[in-house]
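Project outcomes to date are best conveyed with an example. Our students and postdoctoral researchers have been running inverse folding experiments weekly, and each run begins with a structure described purely in tokens. The record below, which covers 173 residues, was selected by the lab manager from last quarter's runs and is presented without edits.
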């Protein structure tokens, strides 16, 4: 039964999380309230690992969450549930996109989706900030890191990830 629930929950996330992996965060946060598959702290760790590893964030998070809930098969089922809606939708609409991409209604739909996706990403950022900024030390690190990323934005992202890992070790966070 757990496999069916995993598939269904991650299928819904895959169907509704338009905008990429970070948009899945509010949905995953909801799962922490509904099931004991992973805690909010584990979700924060899962996001950190998913952001630091190759591959799509949402897929990495579904795999981790499913594995945490029901082992290897759970990870596979959760991942399949997450990617299935996108796969089906892309197959169904791919032949129509090229044909109707210049139509007014199609442009209007895409134009209207953009702000909704941005709102979901901003909300995901808010949730991550709540989980990451737990005290004065982590808040200061976040503010300094934001300033450094802004100032040195041409550096490769792995530099910032590695610096964050070193800071966590040095400061024993």
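After processing, the design step wrote out the following sequence:
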């Amino acid at each position: 039964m757990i496999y069916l629930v995993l598939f269904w929950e991650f299928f819904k996330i895959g169907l509704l999380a338009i905008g990429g992996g970070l948009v899945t965060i509010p949905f995953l946060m909801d799962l922490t309230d509904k099931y004991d598959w992973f805690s909010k702290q584990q979700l924060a760790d899962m996001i950190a690992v998913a952001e630091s590893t190759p591959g799509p964030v949402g897929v990495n998070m579904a795999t981790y969450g499913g594995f945490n809930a029901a082992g290897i098969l759970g990870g596979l089922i959760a991942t399949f549930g997450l990617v299935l809606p996108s796969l089906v939708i892309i197959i169904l609409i791919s032949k129509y996109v090229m044909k109707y991409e210049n139509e007014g209604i199609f442009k209007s739909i895409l134009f209207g989706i953009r702000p909704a996706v941005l709102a979901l990403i901003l909300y995901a950022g808010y949730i991550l900030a709540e989980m990451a900024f737990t005290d004065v030390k982590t808040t200061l690190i976040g503010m300094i890191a934001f300033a450094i990323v802004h100032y040195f934005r041409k550096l490769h992202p792995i530099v910032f990830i590695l610096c964050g890992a070193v800071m966590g070790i040095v400061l024993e966070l």
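The mean pLDDT is 86. The helical segments are 2-16, 24-34, 40-52, 57-100, 104-132, 136-151, 157-170. The training component of this project remains on track.
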